[in-house]
Design a protein that fits this description.
mitochondrion, elongated, transport, 0% strand, mainly alpha, Mitochondrial import inner membrane translocase subunit TIM22
Length: 196
C-alpha cells in the first residue's frame, strides 16, 4: 500500500489548476493481497477466541489410527452396539412376554422366578448374538466400502446397509434378499441422516 501511495502525485497548490486524477494501480495492490509480496499469516486459534491445542504426539496419532481402523470399528459394533444392545433388547422383550416360562404340558402352572430368569437370559443371549453378527457385518462392510470409495459420506452407510440386508435376507431367497437390501439401506439412510 505504501508503494501505491508513493506513486500518486502530490496535491496541487490551492488556486492552481487541478491535475488529472491518477488511476489506482490495482496490480500493485493485488501483489500485496494475493501476489508474490503477500505475507503468510499464521492462524492462531487463541487469537480467534478458540482454545489453542498443542501438536499431537506420536502416541496420540497411533491411538487415532488404531481407533479409525476397520478391526476396531468392527469390534466396537460387535461388542458395544451388537452384544450389549441386543442383550438388553432380548431381556426387555422377554420381560414383557407373557409366555416366558410357560410349560405347554401344564398350562395352568405358574412359572417360578428361576424359570422366568432362565428364559430371559436365554433370549437375551440369543438376541445379543444376532445383533452382534449384524453389527459386525455392517461395520466391516461400511469400512470396506469407505476404503474403496475413498470418501466418508452418507452413501457408504446406504451401500453397506444394502449389502448387509441383502446377505441376511438372501438365505430365505432372492425376493427376501432384495427386500432386505432395500429395507436395511433405507434404515441406514434414516439413521445416518438423523446422526449427521
Amino acid at each position: 500500500p505504501r508503494s501505491v501511495m508513493a506513486a500518486m502525485p502530490p496535491p496541487s497548490a490551492p488556486g492552481g489548476p487541478e491535475p488529472p486524477p491518477m488511476p489506482l494501480q490495482y496490480s500493485l495492490l493485488l501483489q500485496h493481497l494475493v501476489g508474490e509480496k503477500r505475507q503468510p499469516r499464521a492462524w492462531d486459534p487463541a487469537a480467534l477466541g478458540g482454545i489453542p491445542s498443542p501438536p499431537k504426539s506420536e502416541e496420540q496419532k497411533m491411538v487415532e489410527r488404531a481407533m479409525e481402523s476397520c478391526a476396531f470399528k468392527a469390534a466396537l459394533a460387535c461388542v458395544g452396539w451388537g452384544f450389549v444392545l441386543g442383550g438388553a433388547f432380548g431381556v426387555f422383550t422377554a420381560g414383557i412376554d407373557t409366555n416366558v416360562g410357560f410349560d405347554p404340558k401344564d398350562p395352568y402352572r405358574t412359572p417360578t422366578a428361576k424359570e422366568v430368569l432362565k428364559d430371559m437370559g436365554q433370549r437375551g443371549i440369543s438376541y445379543a448374538k444376532n445383533f452382534a453378527i449384524v453389527g459386525a457385518m455392517f461395520s466391516c462392510t461400511e469400512c470396506v466400502v469407505e476404503s474403496y470409495r475413498g470418501k466418508s459420506d452418507w452413501k457408504n452407510s446406504v451401500i453397506s446397509g444394502c449389502i448387509t440386508g441383502g446377505a441376511i435376507g438372501f438365505r430365505a431367497g432372492l425376493k427376501a434378499g432384495v427386500i432386505g437390501c432395500g429395507g436395511f439401506a433405507a434404515f441406514s439412510a434414516a439413521i445416518d441422516y438423523y446422526l449427521r
